[in-house]
User: Fold these one by one.
Assistant:
Number 1:
Amino acid sequence: MFQNHVGINLTESKLQLVEISYKNNSFFLENIDQTALGRPFRVSSDDDENWQKKTLDILQDAFNKLPVKTNLTSRFSSFTLSNSFFTVFEIPYEHSLTRRDLMEHIKWEVSVLFPETKPEDFLVQYIEVDKSDIRKENRLIVFLLKRKLANLIKQFCLRNGLTLKYIDNAHLSSLAFFYLSKNKFIDKITFSFYIEQDYSSFMALEGVTPFYFKKYDNQSDLITSVENTIGKLSEYGVDYGKVDNFVISGQSLTDEFINKFGEKFPKKIIKVNPFEYFKTTEQVTKNPLYLSQRNSFTAATGIAIRIV
């Protein structure tokens, strides 16, 4: 059963909030808001106690600036975080492993790939690529998040009377709208792009099942990098001409970028409108964020509508 839910998207420079409720057999968009952070939000190697105090203050100061803070009726909250907070990579694995053994295997791979770190310092999320019919390899796409950041978010929620339910990657959170429009994507190949200021990402899906994920440092030529990635997918029999949908969302979607993107990849680009699935009030529809920046709220809305 769906419980009223606040979704918060956190980037290095911004905090966005969406509140979704369920009433009269319908989902309602109750609140949307955003504010800039007073200082860049980063996970540093500072002493944990010192870093935690400074960073929690940054988050709290931003939250206090949100006018809708006093209007929230939900006690449940989930966070979605930008690509910059995640380490993403692929590893092989054996199907015969139990979940516990699989987690131990991932920790071992982390110790080999990143010997300067401690595997226990991370929370792990993974995708099995062979759940699709495109890639039948026994491989995992692994997302690592520093545990101390998750603990900080939990402390923030406790301080503000919120119960933390989920923490997810912003691009993965945007997949909520694939499920809401499942018939549009079923049995089709989709290329999904999530554009951010520092790190963007590309995801290839069969139906609603991801089988490839790539994170990009935006200091490089993003469009050329994406073109190279799409070329590599031919290894799995995925040619550009076979792609049914190009979906794009994120924080830094200027008309200039979308036009350049469209020139390079002449497919119909679906720019996600996360608010079209919900009823709302006249007050919300008059909010400038609702009118002009709705695509940038895809991640926050996606995590707010998440049920399981």
Number 2:
Amino acid sequence: HPNIKLFITQGVLRSMDEAIYAHVPMIGIPFYGDQPYNVRRMVSKGFGLELDHRTLDKETLKAAILEVANNPKYRNTLKRLAQLAQDQPMTGIEKAVWWTEYVIRHRGAKHLRSPLLDMPWYQYLLLDVIGVLLLAVLLILYVVYLIIRIVRSVLCKPFVNN
């Protein structure tokens, strides 16, 4: 929306891409996963600021909002990045048509087909691997049980008096 002045994000890549496309500067407050990396890249590229959620307070947030919303360098950086991202040789429809024709030209494009589609279900779900690991654990437990039985029988032999 053209009236959006600022976007506060956790650093999810898809939402950041949309904000870049719309030329909306950001404040990133990452929590986990790839979010800290994404927000650090945003800061290094110059189109937003990072805030730490553990030390976040009212004054820090207000200062960051005023900085990002009022400083034109963030929006100018986004305009440049958006131009780079939007410079594509084909539109989305043209790409869809090209790929459809590609698949037709190559009779289904079997070379692009995922090998998972031809894999048995038990291999796809890794049940064969789980079975082998479970069997190995059971075998180890059985060997430990046998060793304990042998040690116990040797140590606990009743004394026979003749």
Number 3:
Amino acid sequence: MSGHIVRALPTGASTCVQSSEESRFKQDLRASRDSPCLSLRGFARSSVITVTAHFSNGRVVGTVTSPFINEASGIAASRRHSNILYTHNDSGGRNRIFAVDTTTGHRLATFYIDGAHSHDWEDIAVGPCANNQAESCIYIGDTGGNAGGEANRLYRVKEPNTIPRDHGQNYHLPLDSTLMYSWNQHDCETLMVDNRGEIYLVSKRHNAHGYVFHVPKEAWGTHQNEYLTGGVHLPLNTGDYGPVGGDISPDGRAVLLKTYGHVYYWDVSDHNYPAAMAHYPQTLPYHGERQGESVCWDKDGKGYFTLSEGSHQSLWYYQKY
């Protein structure tokens, strides 16, 4: 099966952020035109309206004390259940996810994903099931390169009907579908799903010079390797290796992207995320964490959570106003 190409041309950098990174952005954008991943010349034009978002400076809403959660590499808010986050461990973990209470950080239940393998799970997302928009699914990205070679595999499971609150007992969820892909990138820690069930991956590179790729939802269940092309270059120059996580808002109109030192925001009005993310983002409030790789919107898109890898880590929440 052929890969899906996203065609977009940025129309100008956003002025949400004024910093020394903007001059580097322009240099990076010019360089991206000569990148083997994408030539932006001749691609469809996408209009981007700059909208400044306002969020609180953040507060700790809980502490993840479970000894089983010590390398939280991704978080995602349930769409079916209030005050529930799903998370998982990084490379070396088992094929399981955890349900966490957003008001305390306590682990409520552990769900083993039957039929899935854990090579290097890096991110998790929640969105409509691609084959049934009325149902909510959990998407898991076995996308990392830390365990020696990339699995390049996505898993999809339906959200559980209930979240047991019995002090972290074990349960099982059947695998709904698998998607295999290949590309010219070597690491990825960001999996995002929009409100239509469309998937976006962001590669991880030095200075956060990653690329945004669209994975068509029609690739689910084909048992074929989907080759991804047409990645759009990110206008970031952070000095570290990233991005390390991201999420699309429940209404599909905003994107969060996280590096080790920042949380970035894009307003997106037309579902053309790669085109929007080719523009310079707004920087949001963020309290530095030990090794913060996780970010997600809350269930209603009224704020965002962050969580670090490590034991007994604080769960931070930043409310929109």
Number 4:
Amino acid sequence: MLLRAYRITDRFGILLLKMAEFVYEWLIGSGSSFVIILKRILGGILALILVILGVIWKILRTIVGGLLTVLGVIVTGILGLLGIVTRGGSKATGAMAQRASQGASGAMARRAARAEVDVIVTEDPLKVQNRRLSVLVMAFGAIAIAAILYATDQSRNTTPLTTFTGSGADAFVIDASPAPTQEGLAAIATPIPTATAVPEVLQVGGTIAFTVRERGQTDIWAVEVGSRQPLRIISSPTDDRDPIWNVQGDRLAFASRRDGNWELYFFDITAPGADPSANVQRLTYDLAFQAAPSWSDDGQWIVSENYQENNLDIVARRIDGSNVIRLTTDAAPDFSPVWSPNGRQVAFVSWRDGNQDIYLFDLNSQAVTNLTQTPEVNEDYPAFSPDGRLIAYSAHQQGQEQVSVISVDQPGTGQVVSIGRMPTWSPDGLGLAYIADAIDNSRSFIYVMPYQTGGAPLIISEVPYGAKDATWVDRDLPPALVNAGGVDLAAVEPLYTEQVQNRSTGALIGLQPITNTQAQNAFLSDTVNDSFDAMRQRLVEESGWDFLAQMDDLFWNINRLGEPGVPDRNWHKTGRAFSLDRNALLGFPPDIEVIREEVGPLGQTYWRVYIRVDEDLQSGQLGEPLRDLPWDFLTRSQDIEAYNQGGRTRNAVPTGYYVDFTQLAADYGWERIPAGETWRANADTRFFWMFYKPEGLSWVDAMLEIYTPGEMGGFLPTPTATAN
């Protein structure tokens, strides 16, 4: 029985050892990373089971060993008693004569029997074997645990990281050196950094094109949604503007003066090369003004502004030039057309009802519907949503440009959604992009508003100040164009260079004469006279005549008093201002037209001045038609309402071609002066005629360029005594 128990425990111990060996080999065996991980998990489970079985077996072994020991003692005792009884019977039947002679041997036999029993109890093989087996099982358990700990040691296992090479999204790892990754049963995987989730409104991606004016001309720029890096994509020495993507996203139409007068062009974005200007194709060949193109849904037609017969109307033409259709014929200007996605409607802006509203032209019925119907608000720049149900547009209200949205099926007042201008829809219709200027007018931003889902506007990119004409397409720019960083500015020469004498010596700045003008005291500061001369020459080129040969004022003496209501601290005294001929408003037609503009939340009044192109050049080669109603100061004497308001707008937009003098002057750094607070009652404070160039200087600092502090007299601040 003892031998059988030994064999059973021996076999069980061998089984435990084999299982430990199997677990060890299985855990450290080779295989893929996934198989290794799976083995580690299952190996841990088996190791745990093995340890539990070892503990259970140790407990059972102790119990069984104790029972066997007790059983051995009992059996030995019984056998001893049986021996005594047998020996006692023999003694009773033996001769009495032998008792004496056998006394000594009986005593020896009893001592031998006790010794035999002691030997049997003390050297019980089962007990000895149980102790050895216990030691063996504990050793096997220790070996199994050591094997598990060895196999799961994190410092022993390294897995090389597979290296990928490529560009863009394919360039996962650019370092060819393998990076060790520690793995193990107890290891917690390090989370892999993931890119910030792209907002739903931006997931459509694509490209937003827009225009920027610099160095006296306008270029077309673009920014890929998500890149924040704007690029110049089309540039010429003259103006390129009014960009619009076709629905297919492979062509960009625009208006340009690159061939002299305003014509329509487009370029194929899929054409090879890094310079889109090399792939520009001309669409129109007409001396008359053409601008503001918009594509049909199939990309085969373009609708645009067209000035013919002294009227600005909407025309549609095939891009191959085979057919031209005049869509509107109203006497009022019709402009800013945009084709609907369904191809059967054209939205445009018109003055036909006396104010600037957005209209819908139905190509099937040729019916025209006033969509906005807001006499107190002037709307412009309509843009259809991709499904054709909504129109976003710009409106100037309360001195601010605002973006509004209206349903094409519900004429009336649209919903104002944000401050900004010239909106464009995202290709999927979820968002609305627009441009807004920084508060300090130092730069502009392209925003995207989640119109369908709601939420705060997101900044797509910072762009140069004054950017406009945004248009969005779901196509990225050509890689060659992006890698080249866009195209270079075509107008490489500066508009002017100021030649200032004695500027480095700290001496006072002198005055320079302005020649060929009838103004009194025809002088300007040496710091601004060159820019004035360059601007004057540019105006001659743009308008065909020297309008600035006749001016009211240039330099004022420091002691000259202004007209009633005009402050004595006048910028004419700094040599940094000039005033146009006010009488140019008179005439039939007048040489200038003045558009009233309300700027800022407080509605401060500014004026935009347009100079009429020479009458011999009114064929379209210079200037462009007006789109706004000018302000008529002469009506102030006609009724009480006009008297209180300082005049009213004209009843009709004047015909002919004009140059935006306010914009041209700004190109050379000359700014307009806001009207005085009393301009409605005091004609001397209208200030539409006055332009100045402060270049960041205060009036006092500008005066100290040409006068000493002693000559300034009472114009300088009174010194305030300070305590020592």
